[in-house]
Design a protein that fits this description.
InterPro entries: CCD97-like_C (IPR040233), Ccdc97-like (IPR018613). Residues 170-189 have a biased composition (Acidic residues). It holds the Pfam family CCD97-like_C. It contains eight helices and no strands. It is mainly α. Helix 2 crosses helix 3 and helix 5 crosses helix 6 (115-121). The chain is elongated, with a radius of gyration of 33 Å.
Length: 204
């Protein structure tokens, strides 16, 4: 337990600027002294760095409201950490699965998810030969008339989505320009006011 806290980065002792960092042995000595002399203060100060398996070290304090509170906090913090870890692992596994399938980052999937971003980052730099190759590959994957019709419909949806994205982007740019013009007008008005103000002569 003591070594876990000492290596956690928790502040063990208040130090002045320029003082050398405490060694692991010094940290362990300070923690050991505090634990045996003032276990409740020890628990209050370092409960965020403790794990449920460390709680057996505080069994001799059972019955204290403060101890029960900090023990409950240790269990709660550990549960939240485990939950966040499980979520991260699940998302990572899902992403790895998509990568293994080889389709998530394909041109078709990226263009379908965000047509405008794809066009800005990739599409506009494709050569005519590369565009023709993409079209030929798409046609070769269409095995029957229904596939061709579906592909054509999906292309229409992508084009419409890109148009809407462009409209939103242009609208945002226009709003920014209008705000800049308004700010410039306000600054010009303030400058004109200062220029036309007549200050009374100074008397000495």
């Amino acid at each position: 337990m003591l070594e876990s806290i000492a290596k956690s980065g928790a502040q063990i002792k208040s130090q002045q600027k320029g003082e050398p960092d405490l060694t692991l042995g010094e940290k362990l000595g300070i923690l050991n002294e505090l634990y045996h002399s003032k276990p409740l203060i020890f628990l209050e100060r370092y409960y965020r760095h403790l794990q449920p398996e460390h709680l057996t070290c505080f069994q001799h304090l059972a019955g204290s409201y403060e101890v029960e509170f900090y023990c409950a906090e240790i269990h709660r913090n550990n549960s939240q950490k485990n939950s966040r870890t499980r979520i991260k692992n699940k998302r990572y596994a899902a992403l790895q699965g998509l990568i293994r399938e080889g389709e998530y980052f394909s041109d078709e999937r990226m263009r379908s998810r965000d047509p405008l971003l794809y066009e800005q980052c990739i599409g506009q730099y494709l050569t005519d030969d590369e565009v023709m190759e993409q079209n030929a590959r798409s046609m070769s994957e269409s095995r029957c008339l229904s596939d061709v019709l579906l592909s054509s419909y999906q292309e229409q949806l992508i084009q419409r989505k890109m148009e809407l994205q462009q409209e939103r982007e242009e609208g945002a740019e226009e709003e920014e320009e209008e705000e800049e013009e308004e700010n410039d007008d306000e600054e010009n008005e303030q400058g004109g006011c200062f220029a036309t103000c007549v200050f009374p002569p100074q008397y000495f």
